[in-house]
Design brief:
heterotrimer, A: ABC transporter involved in vitamin B12 uptake, BtuC, 14 helices, 0% strand, C: 5-stranded parallel sheet, globular
Chain lengths: 317, 294, 404
């Protein structure tokens, strides 16, 4: 079983390495950054069981900080992205601490409230955010042989950092910490009785999620060379939820698959002149109704059923 | 000049109460569905919009005026809500509330874009009825007569709803259905039918708010989309499960936003989220809420 | 990948010989990047696409050797700046688009402008208002075609102040466009002997209810109530302006940015008497009316000024390509710069070399009541004309690097 998992992972890695030759590289960069964002979101949603409506605040704050570092100082791109990630973590400390105190729908509402406040600040602080005009034309100085204006260089750079983010998330999920999270999600009281401290575990998960969202946001900003108020808008928080659900929550590859599907759908709709809302909304509603486990989740479930069937047949023999 | 400033403040507070009546009515429907049934109905804003467009369509296609729309539109929106509940929303009751949120979010996109495809993105004209058009001279200001009518409707509907749910047997049955469906069923009450009916009622309230909004605000497909998160905030602040909470909070938010607009306008629409964060931190079950929030 | 494609392209060029080798990828591709489904889709959207297609068809009919060589592609940016920059890159890189047009929404326009400069391809914006496109953020490949904030403010503010509207109270949406427009209006009003009776109020954006500000206006009693809101916000302002009876209290209405679709949303009686500045309207004169009839036949509705601007801009671009004998960005830019022209949309027009701002005659209009309308959609009465050389930012005040 372990071997199979590694085959799948290597397969995905191969696809990612060849992706810019299959589709437009700029779109491929988007898939990586949104995919990482969705995975980061799922750390809290799929594993800790908390639906956050405010994740755009980490993605966006990091984007703006990254942009400002690049615009105002001559520091290299990785430093700028690091600064963005740190900014997201700093934001996550107070917001996470305060939000974790609530559960269920209250958690969602309080994260929404914080995100709306960040949106407001971003709008007002137009010295740093460009207000409604955003910050276009962000310079991306070359890093040694890497020229960020070259879509292929940009893609592989993003792939390297996104893969790093993925590894961090994967390690966390498959570690005892990840198991503790799942235990807390499934039965908080029982987890407490066994000695886990839900508050601490969830805060750590929240911080990790925010940090990775920040990394994703920084990559996204560098990838586009522009950041605007959309990055902190509540609809961005909504899109990442949709991606995660579509791909399959609680799975490592689900968010990436979901991001790919949503981005490809969005791309296709960009060339149509009507009904994009109807299509998007219908896809969303149908997924939630009939396809709740998402693509990867459904595949895993089918696989599980098949193997259980095999075992039954084997036992019957 | 001091006197002028005080008068202006008083005017703004009065205006805030009128707007608050609107928030209260809009939140009432969501308080019933979200507060009592615990269904996170993100489509509430779209239903409100449908109420307004139904009024417009009734006028445009059948020549029916405002008064007829006031009776018919909420009924049709209520029926539509029941249809949504029966066919789609009820499938997700066993899952965490977030799934219904996501479903209704998808439905919102479909409804909004569907209306846009039929009517376009710009608004449709809709005027108040003759009897209520124009402004009344209240001495210190000229206030639109229709808004005064709207506040009356809001107070009446909110009071009746509160009374029915908190003080009558019908309300007791509804509350029993949501608090303990199993035992309620054991008494021979068809819980699922009641849930559908209550959902329909909440939807009808949204439609009613929409009809009242049509003469005042632009009737366009997105008219409910910015209101929806504000409405959720009002219900959460008021406390889930409390009709009184939502109504009182609605009025309070109206006044808060009015004062905010007078003092520092840019923050006016964000104030409610700041308030919500504060309430959730200090009183997690909301101002009047009774339920456990942790 | 880019180097490989250039090498391949070079080979094709050499092999193909002189005649068809002037145009990249064998033809001229006109790109439309704008809001197709969202809040600006009525102003721009599918109507702009139709206008661009008409322009391409008419050009090919008039220039037989271009037959079959010009294509139009339309892309939706969904009012998101990151999607706009992605799509602009894709259009220039992968879809061989030679020039992008329209692009409503200032954030999207600025993002596209930055991409155009990087890719060294033409970008002609007709839909966005930010004057930064020809000031702080100007660049060699960006052109601003139909209107901008300076033109709106200067035109309307000056006209009303001169007509006797001396005391003002204004509201504006709290973002760059609104702030910018309010500042320009204030300057124009004060320059012409007017004054603000109270500091202008920044409203949240977007916003539905404006009762607070209308009540404030009732007690301040200015001669003019100015609103810089646009789109759905403007419709709400005007609806409530009528609701609160400000007109009966002799408080006139000045509108920063007005589109025909805004008027259609309420009916023209709601806007009656309001004054705004527009670069064009469908029944401005015979040339405009004739073209609008053709457009209406093809698109099913009367054109907005943005859609007319798209037709005009695409035509001017194609003629510049013809003069340059190539669609290579820099050479076409050289042909566009300084070009003077007159067409059904732009009169006494010139594409300024220094900042790539197209100057043209603009008109102050007043909305007439339905009773005076001679046809469906006859909204405006011309009350003043601002000549091209006075309507836009004087070069002496320009913040564009190219103009220094």
């Amino acid at each position: 079983m372990n071997a199979r998992r590694w085959i799948v992972r290597i397969g995905v890695l191969l696809v990612l390495l060849l992706l810019p030759r299959m589709i437009y590289p700029v779109l491929a960069v988007d898939i990586l950054s949104w995919g990482l964002f969705a995975l980061a979101f799922d750390l809290v949603f799929g594993y800790a069981g908390l639906l956050s409506f405010g994740h755009a605040m980490f993605w966006g704050t990091s984007g703006y900080v990254t942009a400002n570092v690049l615009l105002r100082t001559g520091l290299p791109v990785p430093i700028a992205i690091l600064a963005g990630t740190v900014a997201a973590l700093v934001l996550a400390l107070p917001t996470g601490y305060l939000s974790i105190r609530s559960a269920g729908i209250y958690f969602s509402m309080i994260t929404l409230a914080f995100a709306q406040m960040v949106d407001f600040i971003a709008r007002q602080a137009d010295q740093f955010t460009g207000g409604d005009n955003g910050l276009p034309g962000i310079p991306r100085p070359a890093l040694g042989p890497i020229h960020f204006d070259n879509p292929l260089h940009l893609y592989y750079f993003t792939l390297a950092l996104a893969a790093l983010g993925y590894l961090v998330a994967a390690r966390a999920i498959e570690s005892p910490f990840g198991q503790a999270l799942r235990a807390i999600r499934d039965n908080r009281v029982r987890a407490q009785s066994v000695g886990y401290n839900p508050r601490v575990q969830m805060l750590v998960a929240f911080l990790l999620s925010a940090g990775l969202s920040g990394l994703a946001g920084g990559l996204h900003t560098v990838g586009h060379g522009v950041v605007s108020l959309d990055a902190v808008n509540w609809s961005t928080s909504g899109i990442v939820v949709m991606m995660t659900l579509l791909g399959g929550t609680g799975t490592l590859l689900g968010p990436l698959v979901g991001a790919t599907l949503v981005l490809l759908l969005q791309d296709a709709l960009a060339f149509s002149t009507s009904a994009s809302g109807v299509v998007t909304g219908a896809v969303f509603a149908l997924t939630v109704l009939f396809f709740r486990r998402g693509v990867v989740g459904t595949l895993l479930a089918l696989d599980l059923r098949r193997r259980a069937g095999e075992r039954l047949i084997g036992a019957a023999k | 000049m001091q006197d002028g400033a005080v008068t202006l403040l008083f005017i703004q507070i009065f205006n805030g109460l009128v707007n608050g009546a609107f928030y209260a009515l809009l939140s009432l429907g969501l308080a019933v569905i979200f507060g009592m049934l615990r269904i996170v109905n993100f489509a509430h804003g779209a239903l409100y919009m449908l109420g307004a467009f139904t009024a417009y369509a009734l006028g445009e296609k059948f020549g029916l005026g405002f008064w007829a729309s006031l009776a018919i539109a909420p009924l049709s929106v209520g029926l539509f809500g029941m249809l949504l509940e029966r066919t789609m929303i009820r499938r997700l009751y066993d899952l965490p509330a977030s799934y219904n949120l996501l479903l209704t979010f998808g439905l919102t996109l479909v409804i909004q874009d569907g209306v846009r495809l039929i009517y376009g993105i710009s608004g449709q004209p809709y005027a108040p009825p003759q009897q209520l058009s124009g402004a009344t001279n209240l001495g210190f200001i000229f206030f639109p007569t229709f808004r005064l009518f709207a506040i009356v409707v809001s107070v009446v509907v909110c009071s009746v709803t509160w009374f029915v749910i908190e003080r009558t047997r019908v309300g007791a049955v509804i509350r029993a259905c949501t608090e303990n469906p199993t035992i309620t069923r054991a008494f021979g009450i068809d819980v699922s039918l009641w849930v559908t009916a209550v959902f329909g009622f909440g939807s009808a309230l949204a439609g009613l708010a929409g009809v009242l909004a049509a003469p005042i605000y632009s009737v366009d497909p997105l008219m409910g989309s910015e209101l929806i998160i504000t409405t959720f905030a009002v219900v959460v602040i008021g406390g889930l499960g409390s009709i009184l909470g939502s109504v009182v909070t609605g009025y309070a938010v109206g006044v808060l936003v009015a004062i905010g607009s007078a003092l520092y306008p840019p923050i006016a629409n964000t104030l409610i989220f700041i308030l919500m964060a504060l309430v959730l931190l200090l009183r997690p079950s909301g101002l009047f809420g009774l339920q456990e929030a942790r | 990948m880019t180097t490989m494609r250039s090498a391949a392209g070079l080979c094709v060029l050499l092999a193909a010989g002189a005649a068809s080798a002037q145009y990249s990828a064998g033809g001229i591709k006109v790109g439309l990047l704008t809001d197709m489904n969202g809040v600006y889709s009525a102003i721009s959207g599918p109507g702009s696409q139709k206008a661009a297609e008409m322009a391409a068809d008419d050009f090919m009919k008039a220039n037989k050797d271009f037959a079959g060589k010009v294509t139009v592609i339309a892309v939706d940016h969904q009012n998101k700046a990151d999607i706009a920059s992605n799509k602009a890159s894709e259009m220039y890189d992968r879809l061989d688009v030679d020039a992008i047009f329209d692009t409503v929404n200032s954030a999207c326009a600025l993002a596209t402008s930055a991409i155009a400069a990087q890719r060294k391809k033409v970008f002609i914006d007709t839909g966005a208002g930010t004057s930064e496109l020809t000031n702080e953020k100007c660049n060699k490949f960006t052109f601003h075609y139909a209107y901008d904030n300076y033109m709106l403010a200067n035109g309307t503010g000056t006209t009303i102040a001169k007509q006797g509207g001396k005391t003002w109270y204004m509201i504006y949406p709290n973002y760059a466009f609104g702030q910018n427009l309010e500042r320009q209006f204030r300057a124009a009003v004060e320059k012409n002997g007017g004054k603000l009776v109270a500091p202008s109020d920044a409203t949240p954006f977007p916003n539905t209810d404006f009762s607070t500000y209308l009540l404030k206006a009732q007690s301040l009693k200015p001669q003019v109530f100015g609103t810089m809101q646009a789109g759905a916000d403007l419709v709400n302002v005007v609806k409530q302006y009528n609701e609160f009876g400000l007109k009966k209290q002799n408080i006139g209405l000045a509108i920063g940015l007005l589109f025909e679709s805004d008027i259609a949303a309420l009916g023209q009686d709601a806007y009656q008497g309001a004054i705004a500045t527009v670069p064009w309207f469908w029944n401005l004169d015979k040339a405009a009316t004739d073209w609008s009839a053709k457009f209406e036949k093809a698109a099913g509705k009367k054109p907005t000024f943005d859609q007319a601007a798209v037709y005009s801009a695409v035509t001017q671009y194609l003629q510049a390509v013809k003069r340059a004998k190539t669609d290579e960005g820099e050479k076409v830019v050289a042909q566009l710069e300084g070009h003077k022209f007159n067409d059904f949309f732009a009169r006494n027009a010139q594409i300024r070399k220094e900042d790539h701002r197209t100057i043209l005659d603009v008109y102050q209009v007043q909305v007439k009541p339905k009773s005076e309308a001679k046809a469906e959609g006859d909204y405006y009465k011309e009350v003043n004309k601002t000549p091209a050389d006075q309507a836009f930012t004087p070069l002496s005040e320009s913040k564009c690097k190219m103009a220094q």
